[in-house]
């Protein structure tokens, strides 16, 4: 006896939905793409059939058949990239009410996967693409330019963006920390820089060197790690840093997560923060206010980046003039992890 096919198997087609509701496939397609153009009675009938059949629309095929995609693609090094969650939430809050959906893909800091990732995201025929803290090769830059869709590069400032650039200058952010804390009496300062995209690392190191030299402090205490900027990385690397530079009185980390890990390592080793070692960071995410002591940071405006990115995308899709580059200011926030010497 032939087994009865389960209706929720995901194999149903647009034609199956049309047959069940007694309408044309064009009407079903219109409900999926432009529901406001179909009467409420017909729309409810079709939506009920879709639910009963377990029909899943093929978004890639739908976008290729339509000149107006409702999909925005985002590429990131990792979903754990500093600020990614705040940025994504703000971006979604702007685009979702306008009928756009956002999907995200990550390359896990692996340059070898970059080309395939960009090609895959473009295969969805997106309305626009967002690169969050993501460096592109020249080959992929050309690929994006040929796509003619709006492209927004978000994170650090970029002198010659592919399309639009919304970000903050990480070099200036590092200078804010160093200059403020040097005034508090810190002299033996080190920088812990984990894996970030190349343009951000360049900005950070440039700001570090120029600021330290302007204060007549040695800039040699730098640890550049290929490990991701996570809590585990900070916790793992702090003992080696202190072994190399026992005179250290201030450690600046390139993310809140790194700094939180360094704080945990200090607690484990009985090192008093900030009395024996002060710690500061870039970012000001949730962990900065939850760790003990609370973390001195330079706040990077991740949520504002997300909101502006969404607004710029909508404006570009409407054919409006948009600003090519927007540099957002950062803010120094002094907390308990640093103290007056």
Task: Outline the structure in words.
- The chain has 13 helices and twelve strands.
- The protein has a six-stranded parallel beta sheet, sandwiched between helices. A six-stranded mixed beta sheet has the order 7-6-8-9-10-12, with helices on both faces.
- The protein has helices at residues 14-21, 25-33, 40-53, 59-65, 84-95, 114-122, 138-147, 170-183, 198-214, 231-244, 256-269, 286-290, 302-317; strands at residues 71-76, 101-106, 128-132, 151-156, 164-168, 189-193, 222-224, 250-253, 278-283, 296-299, 325-327, 331-333.
- With 341 residues, the protein is an alpha/beta fold.
- The chain is elongated and about 80 Å long.
- The termini are far apart.
- Mean pLDDT is 87; it is low at 1-10.
- One of its GO terms (molecular function) is DNA binding.
- This is LacI family DNA-binding transcriptional regulator.
- Keywords: DNA-binding, Transcription, Transcription regulation.
- Residues 12-66 form the HTH lacI-type domain.
- It comes from Rouxiella chamberiensis.
Layout of SSEs?
Layout: H1 14-21, H2 25-33, H3 40-53, H4 59-65, E1 71-76, H5 84-95, E2 101-106, H6 114-122, E3 128-132, H7 138-147, E4 151-156, E5 164-168, H8 170-183, E6 189-193, H9 198-214, E7 222-224, H10 231-244, E8 250-253, H11 256-269, E9 278-283, H12 286-290, E10 296-299, H13 302-317, E11 325-327, E12 331-333
Parallel strand pairs: 1-2, 1-3, 3-4, 4-5, 5-11, 6-7, 6-8, 8-9, 9-10
Antiparallel strand pairs: 10-12
Helix pairs in contact: 1-2, 1-3, 5-13, 6-7, 8-9, 10-11
Percent range for β-strand residues:
15-25%
User: How helix-rich are the residues, as a percent range?
Assistant: 40-55%
Globular, elongated, flat, extended or rod-shaped: what is the shape? elongated
Q: What composes the largest sheet?
A: 6 strands, parallel
* Lateral strand order in the biggest sheet: 2-1-3-4-5-11
Output mean pLDDT. Answer: 87
Rg for CA atoms: 25 Å
The assigned structural class equals alpha/beta
Could you spell the SSE succession in H and E letters? Answer: HHHHEHEHEHEEHEHEHEHEHEHEE
């Amino acid at each position: 006896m032939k087994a009865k096919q389960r209706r929720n198997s995901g194999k149903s087609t647009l034609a199956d939905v049309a047959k069940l509701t007694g309408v044309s496939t064009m009407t079903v397609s219109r409900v999926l793409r432009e529901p406001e153009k179909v009467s409420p009675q017909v729309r409810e009938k079709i939506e009920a059939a879709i639910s009963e059949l377990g029909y899943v629309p093929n978004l890639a095929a739908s976008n290729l058949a339509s000149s107006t995609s409702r999909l925005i693609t985002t590429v990131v090094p990792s979903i754990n990239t500093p600020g990614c969650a705040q940025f994504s939430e703000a971006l979604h809050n702007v685009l979702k009410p306008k009928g756009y959906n956002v999907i995200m893909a990550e390359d896990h800091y692996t340059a070898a996967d970059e080309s395939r990732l960009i090609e895959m995201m473009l295969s969805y025929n997106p309305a626009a693409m967002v690169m969050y803290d993501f460096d592109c090769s020249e080959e992929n830059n050309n690929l994006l330019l040929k796509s003619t869709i709006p492209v927004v590069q978000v994170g650090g400032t970029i002198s010659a963006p592919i399309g639009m650039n919304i970000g903050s200058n990480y070099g200036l952010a590092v200078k804010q920390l160093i200059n403020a804390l040097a005034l508090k009496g810190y002299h033996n300062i080190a920088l812990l820089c984990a894996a970030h995209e190349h343009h951000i690392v360049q900005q950070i190191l440039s700001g570090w060197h120029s600021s330290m030299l302007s204060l007549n402090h040695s800039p040699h205490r730098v640890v550049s790690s290929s490990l991701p900027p996570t809590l585990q990385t900070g916790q793992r690397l702090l003992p080696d840093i202190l072994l190399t530079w026992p005179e250290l009185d201030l450690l600046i980390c390139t993310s809140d997560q790194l700094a939180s890990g360094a704080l945990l390592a200090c607690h484990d080793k009985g090192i008093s923060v900030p009395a024996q070692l002060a710690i500061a960071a870039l970012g000001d995410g949730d962990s900065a206010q939850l760790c003990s002591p609370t973390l001195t940071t330079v706040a990077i405006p991740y949520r504002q980046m997300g909101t502006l990115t969404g607004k710029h995308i909508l404006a570009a899709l409407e054919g409006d003039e948009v600003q090519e580059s927007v540099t957002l200011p950062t803010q120094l926030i002094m907390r308990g992890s640093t103290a007056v010497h």
